[in-house]
Amino acid sequence: MRRASAEDSFAAPLGEAEALWYDTGRWAGWIDGLSRVVAVEGAWPGVGAEVRWESNPAGRGGVRERVLIFEPGAGQTLEVEDGSIRGRQSVAFHEREGGVGVELTLEYELKERSIVSPVVDFLFIQRAMAASLRSTLARFGSELAHSRPRA
């Protein structure tokens, strides 16, 4: 499996960051490429729950995320699948001085492979995945900052 990841720190308590991350009603504001959440089934964000969402027209199409591991205050691991990949995505929260660190990791494999797939994946897809994760975290940070009470 290929791996892409991104990490950032934010000036907010871990609990606030975690609450925003799991609020599927607000995902369209910060998840890169997400157009709308189609369905949430089960006791989200707990184990076995599932979210299905659709991307913007030029994006991934329909995406399914099913919770494999959920640890309140620590993070979550999802089984993810869309039209071209399947894999696992994890988010981890870490208390840091003055705020919270958030690490987002995607381990994936391409559904359709050819002789050139490893090269295309290495040169283009993996970089695009990492850029998408970085964009998601940057937008998440903006959303988190704007949702915090003003002193």
Describe the structure.
There is one protein chain. This protein is an alpha+beta fold and 151 residues long. It has a single domain, classed as START domain (Alpha-D-Glucose-1,6-Bisphosphate, Chain A, domain 4). It is 26% helix and 42% strand. It contains 2 helices and 7 strands, in the order βαββββββα. Strands 1-7-6-5-4-3-2 form a 7-stranded antiparallel sheet, covered by helices on one side. Strand 2 and strand 3 form a beta hairpin. The chain is globular, with a radius of gyration of 15 Å. It starts with a strand and ends with a helix.
- The count of strands amounts to 7
* CATH fold name: Alpha-D-Glucose-1,6-Bisphosphate, Chain A, domain 4
CATH superfamily: START domain
Q: Could you say what the CATH architecture is?
A: 2-Layer Sandwich
Shape: globular
Q: Average pLDDT, to the nearest integer?
A: 91
Going across the biggest sheet, name each strand in turn.
1-7-6-5-4-3-2
Rg, Cα atoms, Å: 15 Å
Count up the domains.
1
Mind telling me the CATH class?
Alpha Beta
Distance between the termini: 45 Å
SSE order, one letter for each helix or strand: EHEEEEEEH
Low-confidence stretches at least 5 residues in length (pLDDT < 50)? none
Question: Which key terms come to mind for this protein?
Answer:
26% helix, 151 residues, Alpha-D-Glucose-1,6-Bisphosphate, Chain A, domain 4, alpha+beta
